[in-house]
Specification:
Chain B is built from twelve helices and twelve strands. By secondary structure, chain B is of the alpha/beta class. Chain B has a single domain, classed as Rossmann fold. Chain C contains eleven helices and 13 strands. Classes of the chains: A mainly alpha, B alpha/beta, C alpha/beta. The interface between B and C is large, with 43 and 45 residues.
Chain lengths: 275, 320, 321
């Protein structure tokens, strides 16, 4: 697999973040979300690479935990979303008929409902009492239709191709055909969908957290910004508190984006070769 | 006497256009064919694009349901009212070969996986029996199993891949193989290898063929029966040699005149070309009337019925 | 007159470089219909592109060149020191003297523009559009095509009619050379005859040179005056089509013609065993040797030259000596 430069950079960034957020916590001495551990608002030093904030937390370690939590939420929600999208899309596209109509109706409804306002409303209703994972479930509900649509279109077009008839005349059952004939063509779509879902989940969660509507006690990229803004970090000159998570978020998203488009590019050129 | 192929008033209607300009096209319009024989036969269906031959194949392969009418293939009811065979029985009787060998296989699977699927699922063999059946089929088409195993479609040439396709179709010992333009995408020098293969499969292994093509020369070479189609209708049907030696329907005559034959130069003459193809499907009378040199008013209004001639053929023309 | 001087045309691909035309050297006379025949991968389409000058990446002329002589003026496209060089007058040459009918003409027409506007696009800005349309209508009528077709959109016409309009467009300027790449391949047999007869009429009237590429030998039998047979990027036979069909010299041509069934003839036909060599491999000697019944050791090692074995009839085969 010849990876293009985009994909390489994207994967490197993601690798740094993933490994960092998984391995580094083992080196933590203290739970970074505990307040008052350290003196407040200290500048850079060897002990505190990014200084500390107004709550007495070490910014760097807090960031590490935050990245880990954001990624965990992103990846797990994305797994569920992609699985749901892939299965429903394949069934709707290949099997067709009334099953297709039902699934398409669900898809179109979920897409038409604007996710963000609903999330705001829901979050205000259960403010503070949300479990982190409830947020995840709601995100799955809104996230699956997008990729399901493209999977369905692909399945629809594959259905008409001759090797499907060939597979039928070879005695394959519908499930076997979906799994072995249609799925490989849909695979690339799902990889991209998976990566894009991570992006979407992390963004939405961060956005909610910034407004204070997620469970802000749990460190995530969004909640750092929330606390920083609550403590008027910009006014008191504690720029690092805000800048660090913003820059981290940007780089993380860049990594996800590059991986997604890089993979797409690589796959498209490969397709010209093989398929 | 087995009924190799019998269609009765077979119709397939497609509706094109939106709410306002609905157009009905009869891709198959009252198609009646009967071929009965104790011996295996090769039947050719010839026609140009829009003739309905591809739709006929799809109906006979049960990929598409006809709007009305019935069809029997090798004594089994394929379409129409009545008990139809199970998938397993159908696939053991009828197998297809498609036009584009590269489209017939998924790029993500090895070609021999299709063969083993057919051996296991359709022929009901397992393990060693399946491998023996595959080896035997491949040998019949001139390939070795070890040369085919584990390879993907893009590792073969068009001709070889089409042979693998034929081998797969042979595994369940079908009574008839329906081949939809099987050699049109194959290079000219390799075409006869496959056509001769069909002939030997018919003669030595007792398989019948339904050979769909636009190439009259190869149809002449191997067919016992030939049916000529135009815009969804059969225009002439009967013994291949008799029809091609002495065509009686004006369209068949036009087709034969237009073939770039080696050995016979064309006459330089005006040809009646069709420029309103879609409209021709709407004619109430004979579909060929606006291009026909002998058409009269009767032809525009009245659809010609089959006229049976003494040599056994059916000609669908008022002046036959 | 067109002189092909040892043309080597190369494609650059992800896998490397491949010579799609490998050393074609012959003279095409003027005023004749020349058929270029061969199977997939033989290089006939690439040869046509070289003659037309469609040499953009990834296709490049690695060696040799083409010389055209029209009305006693010479033009040249060739490679010197690895760089492509054309004579300075080549710009006047294109469009006026040489014309190209592409394979899928149905898709070459802009679907949202009326045909007459696409016709007019052909000409330079100096021409008065009104006058020119009149001339176009006259020309189209003279070809027995309905002049109303000019006012239609492409999708309103059948595929055969579109192709005939493409032929009309390509011949309006009375070019000296017309290059047609599989002009009738996707079309029905009856339509094909119409187009080929049209081309023959145009050639008879304008006395220009038509080079037509087709894999269908029957087409060549009907309309070509001269035939060029290509195999695996090489020219293997060239001569008057009557000679080539009646008494082919090269074993490939012979076996190819013999493999084609004819209606009314009950003779048993055989295809050629094996398949054309892959141009990616290292090829030595005659490229047809692995499939040739007459192959000897000499054929495996030494490449045969295209030699005139009979007057006007060239073939590249060792067995003819």
């Amino acid at each position: 697999m010849k990876m293009n430069i985009r994909l390489k950079i994207g994967i490197i960034i993601l690798a740094i973040f993933t490994l960092g957020s998984l391995i580094l916590p083992f080196f933590m001495e203290v739970d970074p979300s505990r307040q008052g551990t350290y003196p407040k608002n200290m500048p850079f030093s060897l002990e505190h690479p990014l200084g500390t904030n107004s709550l007495g937390q070490d910014i760097f370690w807090f960031l590490v935990i935050a990245v880990r939590n954001s990624l965990m939420l992103g990846v797990s929600v994305s797994c569920v979303t992609t699985f749901v999208a892939g299965s429903l899309g394949l069934i709707a596209g290949y099997v067709g008929g009334w099953l297709d109509r039902v699934i398409t109706a669900l898809m179109d409804t979920a897409i038409a409902i604007p996710a963000f306002p609903i999330l705001i409303v829901l979050s205000t209703l259960v403010r503070g009492n949300t479990s982190f994972w409830l947020v995840g479930v709601i995100l799955v509900f809104f996230g699956w239709p997008w990729s399901a649509r493209s999977v369905r279109s692909m399945a629809l077009s594959i259905r008409e191709r001759e090797f499907i008839s060939m597979a039928k005349f070879s005695g394959s059952t519908t499930l076997e055909i979906v799994r072995r004939e249609v799925f490989p063509y849909v695979y690339a779509l799902l990889v991209v969908a998976f990566i894009d879902a991570i992006l979407w989940v992390t963004t939405t969660e961060a956005a909610l957290a910034v407004i204070g509507l997620s469970k802000v006690e749990i460190p995530t990229l969004g909640s750092i910004i929330f606390w920083a803004l609550s403590y008027n970090a910009l006014f008191i000159g504690e720029y690092i508190w805000v800048v660090a998570p913003v820059v981290t978020t940007v780089i993380l998203f860049l990594g996800i984006f590059l991986t997604s488009t890089g993979y797409n590019q690589m796959y498209a050129t490969r397709r010209g070769h093989d398929v | 006497m087995n009924t190799i192929l019998k269609t009765s008033h077979l119709n397939k209607e497609y509706k094109l256009g939106g709410f306002i300009n609905r157009v009905r096209i009869n891709a198959l319009d009252d198609v009646n064919l009967t071929i009965e024989s104790c011996e295996p036969v090769i039947i050719s269906i010839v026609g140009e694009s829009g003739s309905g031959k591809t739709t006929l194949v799809k109906v006979l392969l049960r990929l598409v349901k006809p709007t009305s009418g019935s069809a029997l293939v090798c004594d089994r009811l394929i379409a129409g009212k009545g008990d139809k065979p199970s998938n397993r029985e159908f696939f053991s009787t009828v197998q297809p070969i498609f036009q584009n060998p590269f489209e017939a296989f998924s790029a993500y699977r090895t070609v021999d996986s299709y063969l083993s699927d057919t051996a296991v699922n359709v022929a009901g063999l397992n393990g060693k029996e399946a491998i023996d059946a595959m080896t035997e089929s491949l040998r019949l088409v001139g390939l070795e199993y070890r040369d085919v195993r584990g390879k993907y479609p893009n590792q073969f040439s068009g001709g070889e891949l089409q042979r693998v396709s034929i081998a797969r179709a042979l595994i369940p010992h079908p009574e008839i193989i329906i081949a939809d333009e099987p050699v049109s995408m194959i290079d000219a020098s390799l075409r006869m290898n496959i056509i001769n293969l069909f002939l030997s499969l018919k003669e030595e292994f007792q398989r019948s063929f339904l050979y769909i093509t636009h190439d009259l020369a190869t149809a002449y070479y191997i067919s016992d029966y030939i049916g000529v189609m135009y815009r969804g209708c059969i225009v002439e049907f009967g013994d291949a040699r008799t029809i091609l030696a002495d065509p009686q329907h004006p369209y068949t005559q036009l087709l034969l005149d237009s073939i770039p034959d080696i050995g016979r130069k064309w006459h330089r003459e005006k040809i009646a070309l069709s420029d309103i193809e879609a409209k021709e499907f709407q004619f109430t009378g004979c579909r060929f009337c606006n291009r026909c040199p002998i058409a009269e008013d009767k032809c525009i209004v009245e659809r010609p019925l089959a006229i049976k001639k003494t040599d056994g053929r059916d000609v669908y023309c008022h002046f036959a | 007159m067109i002189r092909l001087n040892n043309i080597v045309a190369t494609y650059t691909t992800v896998r490397g470089q491949v010579d799609a035309v490998d050393g074609v050297d012959l003279t095409i006379p003027r005023g004749k219909i020349v058929g270029v025949a061969g199977e997939s991968g033989c290089g006939k389409t690439t040869l046509l592109k070289v003659i037309y000058g469609d040499l953009i990446y990834p296709l490049a002329l690695r060696q040799g060149g083409v010389e055209y002589e029209i009305d006693n003026v010479g033009y040249r496209v060739e490679t010197k020191n690895g760089r492509q060089v054309t004579t300075s007058n080549i710009k006047d040459f294109w469009f006026k003297h040489i014309s190209y009918i592409p394979q899928s003409s149905m898709s070459s027409l802009n679907p949202v523009v009326r045909i007459r506007k696409q016709f007019v696009d052909f000409m330079d800005a100096e021409q008065r559009k009104a006058n020119v349309l009149e001339e176009i209508r006259e020309y189209v009528t003279s070809l027995d095509l309905p002049p109303e077709a000019i006012d239609a959109y492409p999708h309103q016409l059948s595929g055969g009619m579109r192709q005939r309009i493409m032929v009309a467009m390509a011949t309006f300027f009375k070019p000296d050379i017309i290059l047609a790449d599989e002009p009738t391949t996707a079309l029905d047999v009856v339509v094909q005859k119409g187009i080929l007869l049209l081309l023959m009429d145009i050639q008879a009237e304008m006395n220009n040179t038509i080079i037509i590429v087709s894999h269908d030998m029957g087409v060549h039998y009907q309309i070509a005056h001269k035939m060029l047979i290509m195999y695996a990027a090489k020219a293997v036979e060239f001569g008057d089509s009557e000679d080539v069909f009646k008494a082919p010299l090269h074993p490939y041509t012979k076996m190819l013609i013999e493999s084609l069934p004819t209606i009314g003839d009950d003779q048993m036909r055989k295809g050629i065993a094996g398949r054309p060599p892959s141009l990616w491999e290292d090829l030595h000697g005659c490229r047809f040797a692995p499939r040739c019944p007459l192959a000897t050791e000499l054929c495996q090692t030494q490449e045969p030259e295209l030699i005139e074995h009979k007057p006007g009839h060239f073939a590249a085969c060792h067995s003819l000596r």
